[in-house]
Each structure stands twice: as structure tokens, then as C-alpha cells.
Amino acid sequence: MSWNRIAVALVIALLCAGTASAQGIPGSPAYVAGRLGWDAIREGRHQDAAAAFAKAVDAEPRDPSLHLGAGLAAFLLGQPTAARQSLERALTMAPALTQASLLLGDILYRGSDIAGALQVYEAALPYAPDDKTLATRVERLRRESAVHDAFFASRGAHFTVLFEGPADEGLAARAVDILEAAYWRVATALAIYPEDQITVVLYTQEQFRDITRSPQWAAAAYDGRIRIPVRGTAADSGELERVLVHEFTHALVQSVAPRGVPTWLHEGLAVAFEPDGEAWAAAQLAVTPDRLPLSRLTGSFAPLSATEARLAYAQSAGLVRAMLDRGGPLAVGALLQDVARGDPLQAAFERQYLMSFDAFVDGLAQ
Ligand SMILES: [Zn+2]
Q1: What pLDDT score was predicted for residue 149?
Q2: Tell me, what's the pLDDT at 177?
Q3: I need a surface site. Which of 20, 21, 291, 329 has the fewest CB within 10 A?
Q4: How far, in Å, is the centroid of ligand 1 from the Cα of 101?
Q5: Backbone angles phi, psi at 128, to 5 degrees
Q6: How many domains does the chain contain in total?
Q7: 3-class DSSP state for residue 290?
């Protein structure tokens, strides 16, 4: 459930920084393009932002704030490799540009490079000893790498699964197999292929709560890496697959569209790709005529009661199922890409489905 915590906080921090970092000579082509770029970021038009920053960097390649903007736009477009390059350039010119360090560290962390992320944060610390976000990240990553240093790793083509001891080697190997199969099934269906490796960590219940600060009931978490509390429980195979596929789908959606995807679409896809997700959702919807309004499914499900939350997941899966039936999985993948570029959901839906989103939802209600 916490898949979006870090990303959202980070983006907000960067937006504030962006407002302050329009530098250069007012009226110059680079300055004008840079301003357009930050405006586009604020308005969620990520593709426009990328174009504006490319133009600005062309006109003034020595302004680190423009490389920061280009890096942020690339990140929001789901292009971590391009984002890393721009941010490294910004930091070579201006090692004290804390926002660039925060974003670069976050991207490295998501790409399974925890040592690289820690190195970036630690290099930034002397320039901003009072920056609370930076200090928290350094502290958190040091704690996490202390736990993970003792862990073993099992690697697949697209995943690294970390686990604590030889006793879990079989479990980790099974997790890798499940994830690689899910990769081909889900990524191919949506035509979304993440550039980076995804890290999955198998914890005991205690370690899980300690690292994620998740509530007791959380089944798993995604916050840049997939965290699953399976050690110490007799994890039955079906439940392991369900949780892994669900969290991997979040990771996949997040990799293509870090911002702007409503919760119902995120959770609906995650449930729809679970092995028995659709049957579960249909059964939930069959036992009650109650439905939550769509507005309650757009933001976080955290404030919902347990009964409402079950309904919210089931309705989300139902909406996504209807989208998959109507346009196939490729249309949903294309819609996610449109949202990543900065289209509002309604506009992206209309482009992919040739009907208005409201009409689609009304049709389902009847
Ligand atoms: Zn979820």
C-alpha cells in the first residue's frame, strides 16, 4: 500500500525546489525555456517539461538547475537511465545541489543499487548538514544496509531476491521463478519493460515492521523495492505467488508512470494480475450491492475501513477488468504511458478507448 509514499514526497520536495531554482539571466532563451519546463512539471505535463529542458540545456549547458529539471522530467517519464545521466551532470557542476542528490539516490535505490544510493546521499551530506530529508535517507539506508549486509541474494534476469540465511534458499529460488514468470506475463501484456532490476526482500514479520514501519495488517509493501514478510511464517505457495505478483505489478506501473495514476488503476491492475484476483473480486462484488463512489477510489485506500477497503479493491479490479475486456491489455499499457507523459486520466482514456471516461463508468454502473 505504501508504493507511492517516497515518490510523492520526493516529487513535492523537488517541485518546491524547482520554483526556487529558475536561475540564469532573465529573458535569455535558456531562462525562458527553463521556466516553461518547471511550469510543465508543476502541471504534470512531463513530456512538455522534457522538451523544454532539452531546449534550455542546449542553450545553456552550464546551468546545473536545467540538468536537474531534465533529470526530473526523465524520471517522471519512466526513463531512469536518462534521468541518472542528467542528474550526474548536474552534480558534477554543482555538488551542493541537494535536490539532484535526493533524486539520484532515490533512482539508484529503486534500481537495486543501495550502495550507490548511500554513496550519493553521503557525498551530499557535507553540503547540507541541516537537511532533514537527506539525514533521514542516510540514516534509513545505513540501517537497511546493516540488515541487508547479512543477507544472501538469489538473482534472476530481472530480479534480485534478498533473504537472510541458507534455510530460505529454496523459498528465495521459488520467489525468483514466480517473479520471472510474472515478468513475462504482466510486462508483455502491458508492453511495459522496466529498465532496472527490481529488488525483493524477504523478511521476518519483525524485520518487516522495523524496516517499513508498516501497520501490522500490511501484507507487503512496495516503496522502490518489494518487501515481503514471509520468513518465519509457513508461507503457502499460493499466497506467496499472489503477494509477489500483486507487488510486482505495482513496481511495473510505478516504473512507467511514477505520478498521476489513480489508486483504483494501480490496485485494480495489481489485483487483476493476481492468479485468482478476478474471481476474488467478482465474489466480493456479488455479496453486496453496495458500491463506493469513484471519488473514494482515486486517493489512498488507507483511510477506508476494512470492509470498505475490500470493496475498494474489488471495485478497482472490476473497473480494470472492464478496461481489459474493452481494449485489451495493450490499451491499458498505452494509457499508462499517456498518463506518464502528462495527460490527465480522462484525456488518456478517451484517446485509447474512443469514448469518454464518464460514459464508460456510467455504462458499468448500469
Ligand atoms: Zn496493492
Answers
A1: 76
A2: 92
A3: 20
A4: 29
A5: -145, 65
A6: 3
A7: coil
